[in-house]
UniProtKB/TrEMBL annotation:
Matches recorded under InterPro entries: AAA+_ATPase, ABC_transporter-like_ATP-bd, ABC_transporter-like_CS, ABC_transporter_ATP-binding, P-loop_NTPase
Protein name in UniProt: ABC transporter ATP-binding protein
Residue stretches making up the ABC transporter domain: 6-235
Organism, as annotated: Sphingomonas citri
MF GO annotations: ATP binding
SUPFAM superfamilies attached to this UniProt entry: P-loop containing nucleoside triphosphate hydrolases
CDD domains hit by this protein: ABC_DR_subfamily_A
Length: 309
């Protein structure tokens, strides 16, 4: 059986005289997994991470990290956690090396130069080790935050919107780093509102909306269970409206009437495609191309959140 490194049981958060930021959440994460918590801004992702990391006190429930309760055994639990926050909060006048070494010593670790050097090299920061934080680019500062989080050799790494505000090239570098960390045995939980980030990196995906964890599924299983397929007919002549004779299939017109789109369940006994194509022919609607594709994680996410709106 896989070994859970994180257990969240019945956790919620309601602020005094304020809104419910997080409804009752249950979550279990196994050692070595990458789990992406996907949701729009304000969905409750950061609140959940903050509770797990002991920064915010839950209104109900309990959290166990590496066998330690985050409230009763805070120090041991926190030692097992590396947190990369959204905000770039560092001493701007310290050097990269000093900042990362200080973070390591905060957790009672010796100033292990070989380990710190490896972390900085992995993050392409070694050549910048003597540079002051204030002189770094935004992307380099983001790398420093990750180095600080890794400095004390945590068992589980939390990345809160790790690539927010960074360019596409740096985002892809971050993805490579996360995969490399997992290969070295780290467990990683990231929050993101970038669909492609969850699709690229995660083993499992959790969807959060309005403080509620709607589901947590293996990425491939989620897409197989909820994903639809889509057939696009590229028309020879554009249509102003969907003919009444095609209404039973509920197709839509896209691209200024030049594409007739039909969404269907590929696992259904009947997809309806042969009948639809026959009806299209009967209506003398000519098309020059036919293309089908699977739904993306983005399509699934929009559907899920839309159902709860």
């Amino acid at each position: 059986m896989p070994e859970p490194i994180l257990t969240v049981a019945g956790v919620s958060k309601t602020y005094k005289d304020g809104p419910t930021a997080l409804k009752t959440v249950d979550l279990s994460v196994n050692r070595g997994e990458i789990v992406a918590l996907l949701g729009p801004n304000g969905a409750g992702k950061t609140t959940l991470i903050s509770i797990i990391c002991g920064i915010v006190t839950p209104s109900s429930g309990s959290v166990t990290v590496a066998g330690h309760d985050v409230v009763r055994d805070y120090k041991a639990a926190r030692r097992a956690i590396g947190l990369v926050p959204q905000e770039l909060a560092t001493d701007q006048f310290e050097s990269v090396l000093a900042t990362v070494t200080f973070s390591r010593r905060l957790f009672g670790r010796s100033g292990h130069s070989d380990y710190i050097e490896q972390v900085l090299r992995d993050l392409s920061l070694w050549e910048k080790r003597h540079a002051k934080i204030k002189d770094l680019s935004g992307g380099m500062k983001r790398r420093v935050l990750i180095a600080k989080a890794l400095a004390h050799e945590p068992e589980i790494l939390f990345l809160d919107e790790p690539t927010a505000g960074v360019d596409v090239a740096l985002r892809r570098d971050m993805w490579k780093l996360v995969h490399r960390l997992r290969e070295q045995g780290a467990t990683i939980i990231l929050t993101t509102h970038y669909i492609e980030e969850a699709e690229e990196m995660a083993d499992r995906v959790g969807v959060i909306s309005r403080g509620e964890l709607l589901l947590v599924e293996e990425k491939d299983a989620l897409m197989a269970k909820l994903g639809k397929r889509q057939m696009d007919l590229t028309l020879v002549e554009p249509l102003a409206a969907v003919p009444a004779a095609l209404a039973r299939w509920s197709p839509t017109l896209e691209h200024d009437g030049r594409t007739l789109r039909y969404v269907f369940d590929a696992k259904a006994e009947s997809t309806g495609i042969p009948e639809l194509l026959a009806a299209v022919a009967e209506q003398h609607i000519a098309f020059k191309d036919l293309e089908t594709r699977k739904s993306s994680l983005e399509d699934i996410f929009v559907d899920l959140v839309g159902q709860r709106a």
